[in-house]
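Bug #2210: token dump truncated for Aspartate-semialdehyde dehydrogenase?
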Amino acid sequence: KKYNVAIVGATGAVGQELIRILHLRSFPLEKLTLLASKRSAGKTIETEHGNFIVEEFSVDKFQGQDFVFFATSGSHSLEFAPKAAEAGAVVIDNSSAFRLDDNVPLVVPEVNPQAALTHQGIIANPNCSTIQMVVALNPIHQVSPIKRIVVSTYQAVSGAGQEGISELNTQLGEVLEGKSPKIEYFTKQIAFNVIPHIDVFQENGYTKEEMKMVNETWKIMGDPNIRISATCVRVPVVRAHSEAISIETADYIGEQKAREIFSQAKDIEVIDHRENGGYPTPLDASETMVTYVGRIREDISCENGLALWCVADQLWKGAALNAVQIAELLVSEN
Ligand code: 2RA
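Reproduced locally. Full output below:
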């Protein structure tokens, strides 16, 4: 069987990667429809799998679709994802609009695949920084419940879309030419800098990005008792998010057992050698489909503690790949 697939927001950073991933994974496509704003209609998206023409978004284009991937804003998904579901499509939404909705499964196929099968038309794709963390931590959680997570993220500028990428590139050039860089998208200069602020500040002093890592992890791993604190930082990297993670487990695991658990886990690649270059970096992870784990060691600051370093391509595993893997899950169930 082949499937009619539409991508809403096809010209965005994630939208374009959805086109690539669908082809790279030979998803059984009957017809691929690319939808974007009136301004983008008629544009050609060039990929290594061919060039694709973008059509203007309209609700009637949901008719006959088997899957509709949303890669636009939360407000756009909120308004139009239900209409795509009403038209009979399965919606896989990359925005935060429905992630914490009790009637919408929030799915990472390596962690809670069964949740995808409970969908009522819409399935939410988690936030990129959450996805790679739960892929890495769930195998440990299955051996001994994780009681606490402290995570600092080092998030690529492409997480902020095309604007983030162009702001970094422009600023780097301006600074290297001795000019004062223009700051248009980020809150402060990102070139040769880091910014501890992604999304809006909440009452409790955390940002929305940081609370996404808390609330989404609880839902995906099905355990709201895990104590989680996150600090999400934007760094001058184009693609792939990195995370320094410290956890406490109920029982002692130790680094050797932890390394074994990661090595045997699905879609995790361990790069963990205590020598120059013996750890994964964003340049290693970019345009790959696995979640990398390294720097595995006992956390010496607590009992039953483990510390690790986790890197993944946030446009692929953190967004487009995870979304397509959800569709693959449903197709394999048919
Ligand atoms: C970011 N995770 O990195 C957010 C949204 N993609 O900006």
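Output looks complete on our side. The CA atoms of residues 108 and 204 lie 27 Å apart. Marking as cannot-reproduce; reopen if the truncation happens again.
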